[in-house]
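re: ur question from earlier - yeah i can do the single chain one, its not a big deal. heres the input i used so u can compare w yours
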Amino acid sequence: MIFDQITNQPVIETDRFMLRALRKSDVGLLAMHTGDERVARGTRTIPHPLPPGATEAFIARAQGPERTYDVWIMDGSLDGHAEVVGLVSLTPMDRDQSEIKFWVAPAFWNTGMASEAVRAMVSANPHGSKTMFAEVFQDNPASARVVSNAGFDYLGDAEAYSVARDASVATWTYVKRLQD
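and the output i got, formated as tokens:
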């Protein structure tokens, strides 16, 4: 019998959902949501169409001992929603900094769940970061509002490659100072 690897991440509770470590049992809902072109195009790393095995490989990397980032599932089951309504990740950087990334399933767009998740992650600050960064595509003003509403300040413009778009896309970069 094969069990999920225990991932050492705190569970972070909000009013409507909990942020918890990824589980192998999340594969179905995670594949369904990341297979949606609207979700994939809003990220740098999700391909579209989603290749077979991509979700399983992502879960294995996120649970692995050599992982370079931490992933939390937005689990809405406590409030009568699906176990996977979105995802938040934190990537540690040098000098006590982290980059936050997030997506929410389209059925939950414009419900405030992304804002609630980002605010909860910033408040919990599980990496003990002094600074957090966020990057959003300029054609996604809703995500820009999410990070702005969570207290991030605009830092500048850049561009990033999107696998789903197979192109470089203009971005806005934001910063939030958490500690001195």
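The longest strand covers residues 167-177. not sure if urs matches, ping me
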